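Sample 1 of the test manifest.
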Amino acid sequence: MKKLMDYKVGETFELYLLIKQATTGVTTQGSSFMTLILQDKSGDLDAKLWDTTEKHVKLYPSGTIVKVGGDIHEYRGKNQMRIKSIRPVKEEEGISISDLVPSALKSKEVLFEELMQFFFEMENPNIQRITRHVLKKHEAEFKTYPAATRNHHDYVSGLIDHVVSMLKLGKSIADLYPSLNKDLLYAGIILHDVGKVIELSGPIGTQYTVEGNLIGHISIMVNEITRAADELEISGEEVMLLQHMVLSHHGKEEWGSPKRPMLKEAEMLHYIDNIDAKMNMLDRALGKTNPGEFSERIFPLDNRSFYKPSFE
Amino acid sequence: MKKLMDYKVGETFELYLLIKQATTGVTTQGSSFMTLILQDKSGDLDAKLWDTTEKHVKLYPSGTIVKVGGDIHEYRGKNQMRIKSIRPVKEEEGISISDLVPSALKSKEVLFEELMQFFFEMENPNIQRITRHVLKKHEAEFKTYPAATRNHHDYVSGLIDHVVSMLKLGKSIADLYPSLNKDLLYAGIILHDVGKVIELSGPIGTQYTVEGNLIGHISIMVNEITRAADELEISGEEVMLLQHMVLSHHGKEEWGSPKRPMLKEAEMLHYIDNIDAKMNMLDRALGKTNPGEFSERIFPLDNRSFYKPSFE
Amino acid sequence: MKKLMDYKVGETFELYLLIKQATTGVTTQGSSFMTLILQDKSGDLDAKLWDTTEKHVKLYPSGTIVKVGGDIHEYRGKNQMRIKSIRPVKEEEGISISDLVPSALKSKEVLFEELMQFFFEMENPNIQRITRHVLKKHEAEFKTYPAATRNHHDYVSGLIDHVVSMLKLGKSIADLYPSLNKDLLYAGIILHDVGKVIELSGPIGTQYTVEGNLIGHISIMVNEITRAADELEISGEEVMLLQHMVLSHHGKEEWGSPKRPMLKEAEMLHYIDNIDAKMNMLDRALGKTNPGEFSERIFPLDNRSFYKPSFE
Amino acid sequence: MKKLMDYKVGETFELYLLIKQATTGVTTQGSSFMTLILQDKSGDLDAKLWDTTEKHVKLYPSGTIVKVGGDIHEYRGKNQMRIKSIRPVKEEEGISISDLVPSALKSKEVLFEELMQFFFEMENPNIQRITRHVLKKHEAEFKTYPAATRNHHDYVSGLIDHVVSMLKLGKSIADLYPSLNKDLLYAGIILHDVGKVIELSGPIGTQYTVEGNLIGHISIMVNEITRAADELEISGEEVMLLQHMVLSHHGKEEWGSPKRPMLKEAEMLHYIDNIDAKMNMLDRALGKTNPGEFSERIFPLDNRSFYKPSFE
Amino acid sequence: MKKLMDYKVGETFELYLLIKQATTGVTTQGSSFMTLILQDKSGDLDAKLWDTTEKHVKLYPSGTIVKVGGDIHEYRGKNQMRIKSIRPVKEEEGISISDLVPSALKSKEVLFEELMQFFFEMENPNIQRITRHVLKKHEAEFKTYPAATRNHHDYVSGLIDHVVSMLKLGKSIADLYPSLNKDLLYAGIILHDVGKVIELSGPIGTQYTVEGNLIGHISIMVNEITRAADELEISGEEVMLLQHMVLSHHGKEEWGSPKRPMLKEAEMLHYIDNIDAKMNMLDRALGKTNPGEFSERIFPLDNRSFYKPSFE
Amino acid sequence: MKKLMDYKVGETFELYLLIKQATTGVTTQGSSFMTLILQDKSGDLDAKLWDTTEKHVKLYPSGTIVKVGGDIHEYRGKNQMRIKSIRPVKEEEGISISDLVPSALKSKEVLFEELMQFFFEMENPNIQRITRHVLKKHEAEFKTYPAATRNHHDYVSGLIDHVVSMLKLGKSIADLYPSLNKDLLYAGIILHDVGKVIELSGPIGTQYTVEGNLIGHISIMVNEITRAADELEISGEEVMLLQHMVLSHHGKEEWGSPKRPMLKEAEMLHYIDNIDAKMNMLDRALGKTNPGEFSERIFPLDNRSFYKPSFE
């Protein structure tokens, strides 16, 4: 079925959409209007609702599912939609939010299954037990949260999707460089971003929490490892090394890591995180680019444009 | 009584000294020697012990108190001592290490007393209880550790000396800018460097521990606040804000703070820490400088030399 | 009495306001309009005046006091006012510009009185005489100028307000660190920004002068110290040290100081200036923030947002 | 058999060694001496030869194989050897330079065989033909040169060793991220450092050539691709993209790449190069480190020390 | 005759203009419009064409010459034109594109003549022959291309204009510093930007080509020198030095030069390029500035404004 | 006649030399020695004087002319001299310091004559009078001081030599770019470094003065222009512009200029200063380099080595 992003300029559509964000304004001539950001799984577009009243504001808060008819036009180089009809969805139409938000290609259950396999290759009981304990405590959120508010893996279950992809890459690298300790590497990959379930507000309409802003997912996770070790009555070098893996995974102080990597596995964790995040951004940007052309600029890749070769 | 640093080039001395560091070497001609760093409360100097044997190595490990006779000469612009006689101290001479290591001017008991007075100005029970709890747990080390391995307050009880001085400055500033919250500011000052008692090895011959290198005093302390809050069953914003005070007190990511200050009191904590540390370095460097001349370069002050005015 | 910034979106008002800035434009449809920035002591807002003619342009230049009726609406996340009636103020209404521009809380006379007290603690006659001489020469402007065109102390008498606040902080610090020379420190605080009275255009609608742009308040002030010393026939180290205090008070070359501080007092002057400026910005930003929320971003504080705790 | 680096301080040895570098000096007392750097496959050490004459200088130039007897001592924290006997090797002893210089673990023939397998996975004939052509032209040097003068893969056949290791890693990554074009990625890996065979002087005693200094291996290789395409009469996008892969493989302008990566495969080439080089440095540094201790500082890894866990 | 940039706000005009760029849009009310950038030799302005249809889009693509009547108004501080009449030019009106695009003051033939004179001062036959060969191959484009897409010498024949101006400056400098080698310096000046004829799309409506983006004019030119030397069968140091001159002319790696200058003449080439480019930007910006005022900000001069003295 | 730097390793010499610097030391075995830096016009070398007594220290302070016999040897890659005989020069030998210190090739009178010619091209009386006034006041020092303590023009009369060379370059540039104001440019060139006569201690054994360190030649000169204008009773824009020329001639804040250039002539002054200083360094370094080799590293040129072509 054709989705929002499949429509081109000038085409008309009739679709169920989720109001991602709703704000109100007043034209310079004095009449009220609303700006809506409407989305389905394929992406989102802006729209204006003109001459609105208090009734509209109550009917269409962010988070509402609506049925919208309209067409697509271009404004300042970006597509927008023009709303011709809009109404809240009816219960009997059976549309739920999960039908309209993007998510990982595999289900969270399948991803979690894949993740759990990696524990079989881990041998150090302390590392394994701490990792399992933290994971279990945050399992529900870990399976549904995105890995970020934007840029990469910023969709429902994006966090676990990112972690499983990193684990596969980690396994390849550890097979090629056998001096790497798989216990540390896998545990580091699994734990490094679990703090995001406290740093971020949730899987949809994701924002930073106050704790996320003031403490950050790295320090949150270091605390959680302390707690896990206390609860399991584990002490010793492994606890410290796991904390170091998490602490250093941003690679440099200026990127938010209070310590630079001082373990071989921590250095590799930083690379693996980078490669997986950047491949995700590149695939997304180049998916929207025609062969023989340059992509839009990708901000976290130093704002570079990437070229898509004209041959296969 | 005349101390080590009071002797000028050419003068002879006879002093009790502590071997701060001892290393062995071989001359290019093949004979063995030892390089000793010898100190008393006034400072330390290098010395060579020529034509040494295994016996010397066993007799003069670092940490030994010795009685040394010799004179002072200059080598590459720095004073050194030439040893003419050396022997281990005898027990009946009654010299202890604390007689030979520099320390805060006030006793640690007096300093602790002064520190405890600041609790009376604190009103928020959660902040007060967490701060007292952490302090109590590490009280012994907190009272004897230095604040750093070198540069500033790097002597026995330097840490508490630094903290009490910062509290006094903090009080002045809070009195001038009454919008500052004294609970947060005082607690932040007291807690910010307590992690040093785990980061550093001890009050004498201080080095970084493995945990200090891999985790660092900032993250160590954030963990300790989590533990204290768990043990006291305190939760809520105060815990998070105290953690933020500690996390951000280095001011910038590139200076090791995973978060920049986002509380007014955190911003001030960073300044107060800076002023007290730098006044300590400046007073020390200018104390060794003649009026009308420039001091030696001070590395942590961007390697600058400071001028000492020729008038009072 | 309710001031401009006290009105919320949707409320109507009738106020005397000062036209801070007036520009003209043409809509894409070809009709003329004016954009006015209107202010009272509480702050300023933008407004549009539609379908204007030459008559309006002459009637409402910047600097005019007007009586305006209208209401407040929001446009792109910022409040604006919608003008329903506007006319120039009548002389008999007795409103003067000083009623409508923000200023220091204390009167300039009181502030100057406070400042003069600090001379009693100064002992070095050369330093005192030069400082008094420069101050006397620029006294009138020094008492009314702002300390900056925006960001901190950017109101009438903001400069002297900033200097008096710094002197109080300087006194506290000098009392805690008695090795500081109060003559140098106080003179440095008093003189450091006097050059602003030439760098900036005046107390209202403040802009940089050509001399301000090409020479800057630091070099302007260094010249003034030379002149003062020549006129008083004072020579010697004090002149040079006062010049160094001014030259280095921005702390680093890249912040506009041709020399980094090389006097203990110059290092402290830089910190004191920083603390007072930043407390002013923080208090202002947090004054507009609700408890439990983050402030707007503060550009000169690395564009950070600050959190206002939800408890007192 | 015990090699040079296996001897500890105080032990005596009798070994065939290669003079890697020989310089002469005069003591402050006026007698001549030589400083030799002597190596075998395990590494190298410094030694002094005292009271030398012209005869010694002629007998022991760099590149000479010698039989040396002596012992190991420590000087300023680094091991040195003390020479007790030395003579040039005799032909009948049958020692050749390749017995004494470190080299890749696998033979160059085996490595080349492995490399050639990757061509089977390449499909684009233009890319394949250019890559083979360049490789064929420089095959002999490509098989014996090091990848660098120091830091990583700085041994005989280090270049091909590095490239084969990168190809294996590239294959793993391309299998995990199937949108990557294997033609571009493999060709980029093979070609990226071929220019080193002109930039560097040779497999032993490797230094930068004048052309290496003035032009650099990146531009040298871009020229070679132009030549290859001209000779094969291939034109079109593939030539340009291969040149871009080489041009951008250092990742940033400040690291010597005139263009940042603008192809997904170029971005990955940069990461793969980095991972393989850094794993090589880390394995080497940690190989010399005891469990529970920190390695020496590794300059190209931001001068960091790495910790070797005390558990397996 | 009065040109586009000579008209002030409020004046009406009737002019032949070139459509430099044409884009279409839709108003929020749903009607179509076009945004045109229209230019003559004096500069360019934006204009809107309201209520457009498909017919307008076909009639007015970029590159069309039109006769336009209208007037000038100001919008957000920038002049715009309001179109009152517009039609495509008729053939019999005899207007060609070259009448409407800015160009060098001297004709390209005169400039080329001036350039060729510099060969008479060159003595090294290898350097001369390579330089002539490259120049001959690209002569046509070299004579018409701009030196850049914007900022400096961004007009028809701007490249040769820039090069001739640099040659004159180079000659002055070489006369003052006779140790400079004129062969290298002149050849470097002539060749340094020839690669722009491949990097850029053409003399009008200039954009970067794909090859320009992925390879860049520096590496393009280094390749061309290789080709020229191969075709002329010249080898030896001169080829390498000419390549180094081109490679290093941006001065630093972060400015796109893979090598910093390592020849005296390369260092000077970088300065000469800079001076000529900056004088061009400064003259242009100050030409639009009134005496006693500051120019607009000039982005490539660190975004500085320059002051135009009020005296001659 | 053969000078100090003409002697190669192993050669013996007998020369009049100036003791540039003399320091005393003690060997680790306890005997005293002196380290002398000895120079003639060609350069300087280090030497040791062994087993010295108080008599030697009194006989050979820095500034003494001595007759020395000895030979040249190499120590750590640098030439040193071994003293075999040394005695103070006798008055009747008629050697003066000016015979032994390097100086400009032309006499200071000839250089001053050349400089004065440039005043004839200046037209603005205010600029001319201020420039002449400042120059006259410091004429004696201006004619003998070096331009720097090291790196470039660091010899007797180096300052005027540098200024005259810059004036010639400035004239060439102003002739090519006629929009440049010669009054400002020439005055800026003449005045920009006059402050060095206060910043530096004198023509021989040059060091920074206290005022040089604390105020710097830029601010010193800005003050002098103020004084000159006051004394000549000149006011107006020219005074400010001359001060801006001096203030901004280091180009950037981080290079010690409190303001970046905001005049076209100030921008050019910065370039002209740079070109002349760097040509001086390059000629000096390449003068010591063999064709086909790289020079020693030149610290102020980003520590680069420069290549000297093997052809003329």
